[in-house]
Write a structure and sequence with these properties.
The complex is a heterotrimer. By secondary structure, chain A is of the alpha/beta class. Chain A has a single domain, classed as 3-Layer(aba) Sandwich (Rossmann fold), CATH 3.40.50.300. Chain A is built from 10 helices and 10 strands. Chain B is an all-alpha fold. The longest helix of chain B has 28 residues. Chain B has one domain. By secondary structure, chain C is an all-alpha fold. Chain C has a domain of 203 residues. A two-stranded antiparallel ribbon of chain C has the order 1-2. In chain C, helix 1 packs antiparallel against helix 8 and helix 2 packs across helix 9. Chain C is globular and about 60 Å long. The chains are: A alpha/beta, B mainly alpha, C mainly alpha. Chains in contact: A-B, A-C, B-C.
Chain lengths: 245, 373, 301
């Protein structure tokens, strides 16, 4: 067994008594691309929220490398090497594509450091290559607010690439994309997940098939099944959840 | 340095030129045109508006770029103003003793005590007045005190994610507190009359025309310095992070930044600017008064920035000068209409000119460039 | 301090509480439900007070026989005048600024300056006072040392009735349901056939009307001047924020606490220092409970 990069044990969060995630165990290996699926309200997004610090768990432990993430706040978790892409594309609309990528470059992220930060050749090259990867090399001077929905999704992925996280958390990266954009994105995800661990939440089964190594199915905050795509698809409990009502 | 990917297109060079050009124009206006065109009295007024422009420049940083509407800049202006007033008052009291009034003040046992304290039967100089005998302490207090207060206040609030209108209300309450305390503690602060009747600054007679000129140029220089410092901040990565925070604070955390730290920093910078303005105000106008620290003046400072353009540091200076000039004009002619004027100004700027005069100018420039093709 | 004095002190706190409650209820509706900060709320209170004042003048001049009921008429009129003004204000200004809460603060601040000057110029630059109706003069002698002025008892009663009415209106009527629907999910409410624009105008006007009632009560406690409203606005904001903007009960509880604090602090220090200490205290409390003392935890999408 390869070494684990993320170890979630007994994770629970309740909102006014409602348990959105309930005593969940979840493990991700080094360099693995994991898909998390499940019906609405299964706790998928909440799980990612807790890993990246957006939501504080009620109990349980989240171990990432040698950090206990439950004791850290968002920016510390990000600096430790967790990158998060949100369900709705969230980019900095008043900044240009270039500036969006620039801000995501993981150097000099404190106040004084950023005051005296100067763009160097290394960063410029990285921006160039990331922009090419996300198909935005000709839009560097465009304000991010002017991009199309799909392009914003890509830009956000690009920002994560600048960050170069060890663990990438993607929440529905193809939501609202055209069929052609989906294909391009699948390609993109396959190439960027190389050399790092990735957790993807997705509804689109065809898309999941295209990219996943291993699939986790959540239902009502609990783990329902885990395994290869074929395995979970033939699991009667999964079939029951998806088709039974 | 920045070469391949960042090769700046012509538009960027042009906007750099425009920025530098308008900065030089402002410098020319403040350092050459005003002193040549105005008599001492008018120049004194210009100096007064310029002191308030420090606050406006700070508000552009905090509000325009940081997205934090501070209704408490009067507090920091007031701290700077009162620190300077304390120093000047102690100097005046010491001189009064050493020249003529010695016998009298010795008789009353009020040697070295500011006159208003004696009137309020405060007989011993409070301990926190003592260090203001020294000019170096006073200057340090002005430069460090208000930003420190702002930083701590900002950081604890922003860390707890108190932002938006909540923070505005907190700063508003702070303005109220400051004014109430100053007025309530008359014996130590001069109360509602403020602290006034200074004589000299480091031996320089403040009523002297030459002294007024010197102080004017110091104020103008400091103001230009603050504008330049503000521009440096906005052009750095920190400036871009601020814009990012203004638009999507939640997302910035996941880019690995601590927004609370950045917001507190820019709030502290603005506080420092305001405090410098307050100190220069007191030296030149000869007054530190609670009427400049409360809610009304604090909110009024925001309109300076709004009129000039909340995104333009230079615009804020013009905004302060214009609104200040208008205020003088109204108070000299028909004082009752001032409130209508400023009231309507608030509404009109917010409704129809959210980016102020600078924004208007930008629009015109864009249109002209398009016309050029 | 003996028991009688404590009772009196607590009662004084209650009178401050009534004004704060009525002011804060209006503000809490506008701020809590619509996210709008109305800096001219204090001037609307003054408008209510002036309406009551003019009603008293009218009765004294034309209906002296019915002078005993002018105050009741004044309350109703104050409500409707400020309600109507609020409606116009919402349609003419506020609705353009819903997405810019900070700008709303500035625009309404401008409006408050204009209103103050209008009062100064066209009503009276000095403070005006109403004549208390005869049946509210005098006091209720509870024990030998404790006497409670009837006028204050009356406005406490008025505040209680108003608070209950607002609560019933918001949670027991169709209009209230519409308001809550719109504030919770605007597009959905619109899709369900609710005229969201009218609901907005109505909600805002209702908040303003409550400020009018507050102004009416205020005339029983003190005289009204052009800047009367401004003196109260910060305290009112503090009450609302302290209570947690989304909870009407929280607003009332917080008005009660702040009213009592003001009254008790004044016992040991000057009135203005008491105010400053309370404001400072609230800022500190807000640090520990940023959503207010009585906020409930909600899961946000």
């Amino acid at each position: 067994m390869a070494s684990l990069i993320l170890q979630v044990d007994g994770l629970t969060v309740s909102f006014d008594g409602f348990k959105a995630v309930d005593n969940l165990n979840f493990y991700v290996e080094q360099d693995e691309l994991r898909c998390v699926i499940g019906p609405n309200g299964a706790g998928k997004t909440t799980l990612l929220d807790m890993i990246c610090g957006k939501t504080k768990p009620t109990s349980g432990s989240i171990k990432f490398k040698n950090h206990q993430l439950t004791d850290m706040i968002e920016y510390q978790i990000t600096r430790a090497g967790v990158g998060r892409k949100f369900q709705n594309p969230s980019v900095y609309e008043d900044l240009t594509v270039y500036e969006n990528l620039d801000i995501s470059w993981p150097k000099q992220r404190n106040v004084l450091g950023s005051l005296f930060f100067r763009r160097d050749r290394k960063m410029a090259e990285k921006v160039e290559s990331v922009a090419t990867q996300i198909f935005l090399q000709d839009q560097l001077r465009t304000k991010a607010g002017l991009l199309s929905h799909g392009q914003k999704q890509w830009l956000e992925i690009g920002m994560l690439l600048m960050q170069d996280p060890d663990l990438l958390l993607l929440d529905e990266p193809v939501a609202g994309m055209s069929a052609r954009e989906r294909e391009q994105t699948a390609e993109l995800l396959n190439s960027i997940s190389k050399g790092r661990s990735t957790v993807v939440i997705e509804h689109d089964m065809a898309f999941v098939k295209m990219i996943a190594h291993k699939v986790t199915v959540l239902h009502q905050g609990k783990l329902l099944a885990e395994g290869s795509m074929d395995q979970v698809q033939s699991d009667p409990r999964v079939v029951e959840t998806y088709l039974g009502h | 340095m920045t070469t391949p990917a960042t090769s700046t297109p012509a538009t960027n060079i042009r906007s750099n030129l425009w920025g530098v050009g308008s900065y030089l124009l402002l410098a020319l206006l403040l350092l050459v045109v005003f002193p040549l065109a105005m008599d001492v009295f008018r120049l004194g007024l210009a100096a007064k508006y310029m002191s308030l422009a420090f606050c406006a420049v700070g508000i552009v940083l905090v509000w325009g770029y940081g997205g934090i509407l501070s209704l408490g800049q009067g507090v920091f202006f007031g701290l700077g103003s009162y620190f300077m007033a304390m120093f000047l008052k102690l100097e005046a009291a010491a001189n009064a003793d050493s020249s003529s009034g010695t016998a009298l003040s010795a008789f009353f046992g009020t040697a070295g005590l500011p006159d208003f304290m004696a009137w309020n039967s405060v007989e011993v100089l409070p301990w926190w007045w003592e260090p203001f005998h020294h000019v170096s302490f006073t200057i340090l207090a002005i430069l460090i005190g208000p930003p420190l207060v702002a930083f701590i206040l900002g950081y604890v609030n922003f860390r707890k994610r108190v932002g938006g209108v909540y923070f505005s209300i907190v700063t508003l309450a702070l303005s109220a507190i400051m004014a109430i305390v100053i007025i309530g503690q008359q014996g130590y602060t001069g109360g509602v009359n403020g602290i006034t009747d200074f004589k000299t600054f480091l031996g320089m007679d403040l009523d002297n025309e030459r002294a007024k000129f010197v102080m004017y140029f110091i104020t103008a220089g400091l103001l230009l310095l603050c504008v330049a410092a503000g521009a440096f901040i906005l052009r750095s990565r920190l400036g871009r992070v601020l814009v990012a925070i203004r638009d999507r604070e939640d997302r910035v955390r996941f880019s690995g930044y601590d927004p609370a730290m950045f917001k507190a920093f820019i709030f502290a910078v603005a506080a420092m600017f305001s405090a410098i303005g307050g100190a220069m105000f007191t030296i030149q106008v000869g007054l530190a008064s609670p009427s400049l620290v409360g809610i009304v003046p604090s909110v009024e400072m925001v309109i300076y920035a709004a009129v000039g353009g909340r995104l333009s540091l230079i615009g804020a200076v013009y905004g302060a000068l214009l609104v200040g000039w208008a205020k003088t004009f109204f108070s000299e002619n028909f004082v009752e209409y001032w409130f209508y004027f400023i009231g309507v100004l608030f509404v009109v700027v917010v409704m129809f000119l959210p980016t102020g005069l600078a924004g208007l100018l930008d629009k015109v420039r864009t249109r002209m460039r398009r016309a050029e093709g | 301090m003996n028991l009688d004095m404590m009772a009196m002190q607590a009662f004084t706190g209650l009178s401050i509480f009534t004004i704060l409650t009525l002011m804060a209820l209006g503000l809490a509706i506008v701020f809590g439900l619509m996210g709008v900060i109305n800096m001219a709320h204090g001037e609307l209170m003054a408008m209510g007070a002036y309406t009551t004042y003019f009603t008293s003048l009218f009765f004294a001049k034309f209906l002296p026989g019915l002078f005993g009921i002018y105050f009741l008429v004044g309350i109703v009129l104050a409500f409707f005048v400020t309600f109507a003004f609020g409606w116009i204000l919402e349609r003419g200004l506020i609705r353009f600024l819903y997405k810019r809460p900070l700008d709303t603060m500035l625009a309404t601040w401008g409006l408050s300056l204009i209103l103050q000057q209008l009062y100064r110029q066209f009503i009276n630059a000095k403070e005006v006072e109403v004549t208390t109706v005869s049946w509210l003069k005098g006091a209720w002698q509870v024990t030998e040392g404790v006497s409670l002025p009837l006028s204050r008892l009356f406005i406490i009663g008025l505040a209680v009735v108003t608070a209950i009415a607002v609560y019933m209106f918001l949670y027991r009527t169709r209009w209230g349901l519409r308001i809550r629907a719109v504030t919770q999910n605007r597009p959905m409410a619109g899709a369900a056939g609710i005229n969201t624009e009218r609901v907005d105008a109505f909600t805002f006007a209702l908040g303003c009307g409550l400020a009018g009632i507050a102004g009416s009560s205020f005339t029983m406690l003190a005289s009204t001047g052009p800047t009367t409203g401004q003196a109260y606005i910060v305290d009112t904001f503090i009450v609302v924020v302290f209570g947690g903007v989304e909870s009407l009960l929280g607003t009332i509880a917080s008005a009660f606490m702040i009213g009592q604090m003001q009254s008790w602090f004044e016992y040991s220090m000057s009135g203005s220092m008491a105010r400053a200490s309370i404001l400072l205290l609230v800022i500190v409390v807000l640090y520990f409970r940023p959503n207010g003392l009585f906020a409930t935890k909600v899961r946000r999408a």
